[in-house]
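Two proteins follow. First one:
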Amino acid sequence: MTERGVAVAQACRDLDLAESVLRRWMRELMAAPVAAFPGNGLQCAELAEIATLTKEVAKLKAERDILKKAAAYFAREAT
């Protein structure tokens, strides 16, 4: 293929793919490189918001756990 110097036919045999599938993927990559890997490129607004909220939830859970441990520590110390 292009970067590694492997023939398309050999890559298809190695990956157990039809040659037409790999050639189509290569055409799509050449036509729109950004859209070729949708999970790694630009995300729609909803997915970006979900990622932000997921990070915030993890942070809030960590803060909650710290407060629980502190409350238990001070409750033990008070007795």
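Second one, unrelated to the first:
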Amino acid sequence: MSSPFRSVNAGAVPSAIPIPQELLAEPFTIEQAASMGVNRKVLRGRRFRSLFRGVYVSTCVEVTLRTWIMAALLVLPGDAVVSHLTALRLWGFDARRSDELEFSTNTHAVTALPGIRLHRRQGRLKPQERGGLPVTGPDRTFVDCASRLSLIQLVQVAEHLIHTGATTFDRLVSYCLARHLHGVRRARRAMAFVVPGSESPMETLVRLMLVFARLPCPEPNVWIVDGAGRRVARVDLLYARHKVIVEYDGWQHERNSAQRQRDRERREVLEALGYRLIVVTDADLRTPRSIPWRVHAALAARGYAGPRPVTSDVWDRWFTRNV
């Protein structure tokens, strides 16, 4: 089912009568339009489209997620704030497409608006502003999403929020320990696997594939230096003791010849310094069980004597589902 809250390209529509500028930029209510001399007949014409009952927007406006949120806030309780998975999208992480826009309120209001989910909260809401919209803070958003996302996704979310500067590792841990909110236990469990310094969800996914297969945890985003102490390459995941590098490459088929040449030269420099490079591509993610075994083989060839990977059917389904 496609989401009703899809983006819609703007289209210039000639106007027969002057329309106030305030009605051409953002969503508005019928009452607001009437106060500016624009009646319902005009709103039902080609120059406007209805987003919710009683809420319109000019067809000159590109309808985005932000537009839908602004429209909903016009008819929700005055204290409503963007929350849960919708808030997570505003914090820059689209965990999964949802057909709902989610908000929280301290009131007992209910809504019959299609595609709107209104959560009633007992504790005082402490919204922050994100792009001019009231939104739950990053720490609260993380906990609110904990009951809706997998452990893998939660770790990805936490590391994204930390990497983007929305919060810090210590602040997120403290928040989870101090609160007794729905989902906080899952949030605490996820924090046990969070590694500050991770910079992309796919990098996090590959690292967790290794950790949950009972391999050692590699260090993320490390600069490799040569014998003179000069930085030669920054790598995704590093087993420094065994000089094994693991990198996720999601752009393998989109590089031009010059980029491929630079990649080859980089790899040769790393190999000359004694490093073994394991590259994980999107194609590899379709058969994820092979990944920890490839890494284990590289580690074992360089003296690693730890346990072999454990990649059960449960592990396989878990990571296949999260790719």
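SUMMARY FIELD: Residues 1-75 form one domain. The CA atoms of residues 255 and 263 lie 10 Å apart.
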